Amino acid sequence: MAAVASAGGPEELAGALMTPEQPRAHWRRSHTVARPNYIAGVFALVWLVIVLAPVYVLVKGSLQNQAQYTASGPLSVPGQLTTANFALVFQQGFLHFFLNTAIITVAVVAIVVVLVPPLAFAIVRNRSAVVTVVFRVILLGLAVPIVAVIVPIFYLISKAGFYDTLPAVILPTAAFSIPLSTVVMTGSMRDITTDMYEAMAIDGASSWRIFRSLVLPLSRGGLATVIIFSALNAWNGFLFPLILTQSASVRVFTLGLYDFTTANAVDAPAVCAAVVLSVVPILVVYLLARRALIRGLMGVGGK
Amino acid sequence: MTTLTPSGRTGRNSGGARIGRPSFLWSMPAITFFALFAIVPLGVVAWLSFTSWDAIGSPHWVGTANWSAMFSDPIFLKSFRITALLTALGIVTQTPVSLLIGVWAAGPQRNRGILSALYFIPLLMSSLAISVVWVSLLNPYFGLPHELHAVFGGGLFNDGFLFSSPTTAIGVLTFVGMWQWTPFHTLIYQGGARAIPDVLYQAAAIDGAGRVRQFFYITLPQLRNTMMTSIVLMLVGGLTTFDTILVLTQGQPGTSTTSAAYYMYTKAFQSFQFGNASVIAVVLAVFTTLVSLVVVRVSGWDKMRSTQEGV
User: Fold this and answer.
1) Given an 8 Å threshold on Cβ–Cβ distance, is A186 in contact with B295?
2) Chain A residue at shortest CA distance from B122
3) From A285, which residue of chain B is nearest by alpha-carbon distance?
4) CA–CA dist A116, A110 (Å, integer)
5) Of A293, B105, B121, B183, which residue is the least packed, with the fewest Cβ within 10 Å?
6) Residue B101: inside a domain, yes or no?
7) Which pLDDT tens digit goes with each residue over A111-168?
8) Looking at the predicted structure, is the pLDDT value of residue A18 above 70?
9) For residue B52, what are the β-bridge partners?
10) B16 CB contacts (<8 Å, ≥6 apart)?
11) Contact A94, A274 (CB under 8 A)
């Protein structure tokens, strides 16, 4: 690995970007440092401006009053700043929506963390035809689109009497986090060598003991990715709450944001403030757990 | 759980190899839970497509009435053409940008890490938040088209009223999709490009190949699998785009941005014709299942298992 690895620097991020399964390519520093890739660099900078411009408008707009925003336009340099928009957003009950989203997120993560590691363990270590079929179902499940099953889920949830409750959102959200989480967890468990399994098996360890004292400790990285990924999914979820809830008492943040913008479409600064509030918690998680998040998102691509 | 549970009866494996291996029961809680919310509904939606239901009372059997109604519905057929168009535009616009930035970001430039971190910002936002931001930004009266009237004033941008003409509305959906998804695919390409062995570039450099030739003769062929995976993910995502359309265009103007997923939503939850909506859902599910079979084949996810077999 190259020398310039300072904490939090680019090299750390680059290290985090490598999936564990990938063979490490040698650093190309030797021959490319002499000729930086200017064309691609300029191109990347242009795209960066496109990415950051709305982010700038978002943050700046959330701190302006409506008259100012409308008069001077989204890109203008702000004059006076105000926090009135955030106050307005909180008056609409967003604190309560936050709480609902948080409950859903924690419950979804709990379900996924309990169910997925045993499943992944069976997929990696059990050779029976049943488990082969199970794994194929999970892989097919990766591509079962939520929109295609939202009508029957609405039907089933209504029949079960869960309509307009938090479990109505929690259960399907957790179920649809399982396929990707399983792919990540099996990838992580496959890195444990056969020798280690065999050593424990020779000592007469039961599968429960192997799971608890070998598999779980050594697949912590994968588990962290799964937690962050399913949390992000639950936090940003919109379709299940839209279809399966109705009352303000169980409203989640994304749905509150949707209702708020439908009702206050012309109040751009208030909309900006609501969006900023929805992103801040994720931004905090991102800064704390950047490695696991990026590794997880990248694991989706396979090789 | 002990090794005396059904793992001992799985047959094919004999001898000490099965000691300490988990029985298939370990997979059952998760797969049961998953099947209940993802596989069972696929069966239920197929049944609902042959019934009439308005969310009150019970569905009653109407045979193939929904199917013949939907297949003679011009909006239904058009919605699948629009879905195909939006998906194709997504692939064509996102692939070159994420390929170039991904390959660049895999290189050794200084500050690249910081730049990469900034690229990920859209990944953290819900598609709802992203759509809400762009609706506000592209508002013809107080958004960018108003402030940058010199740019948006022409006929190309429909005089700034981007949501009022079919062409510009499709353009907006494509651009917002690009803004939202390019970082994700950049990450995939970055991972792929990092795994290309350095010796290939060294050999090419010795042979006098320039950067452009290296890109076309080494990078691109080496990224073939990565590219397939990325494109297939774009396909599945594009076929089911819903929330962006709900917030940005509501399928308008007319029905010119009414994708299949959005049409299904309006049929079910605005017109309460759940039978008709189920027909659309079944057709969508068939399409995405076909695509997902390709995912499994192309990505090699199913082969990951076979590398462990016989160990």
Assistant:
1) no
2) A51
3) B124
4) 10
5) B121
6) yes
7) 999 999 999 998 888 888 888 888 888 887 877 888 889 999 999 998 888 999 999 9
8) no
9) B60
10) A201
11) yes
Strands (E), chain B: 51-52, 60-61
Structural domain contains residue B46: no
Cα separation of A232 and A278, whole Å?
Answer: 12
Alpha-carbon distance B230 to nearest alpha carbon in chain A (angstroms): 7
**Averaged pLDDT, A65-73:** 73
In a domain, B209, yes or no: yes
A172/B201 Cβ within 8 A? no
Q: What is the pLDDT of residues B111-123, one digit of tens each?
A: 666 777 788 888 8
For testing the chain A interface, which of B112, B133, B291, B296 should be mutated: the one with the most A CBs within 10 Å? B133
CATH value at residue B96: 1.10.3720.10
For residue B191, tell me if it sits in a domain. yes
Cβ separation B211–A35 shorter than 8 A: yes
**Record: contact B285-A145, CB cut-off 8 A:** yes
Q: Is the dihedral of CA A149, A152, A156, A159 positive or negative?
A: positive
Quote ipTM for the complex.
0.79
- What is the pLDDT at residue A295? 63
Residue B296 to residue A140, Cβ atoms within 8 A: yes
Interface contacts A/B by beta carbons within 8 Å: 404
Res. B203: pLDDT tops 60: yes
CA pair distance A159, A170, nearest whole angstrom: 17
B108 in contact with A, Cβ within 8 Å? yes
Please state the domain count of chain B.
1
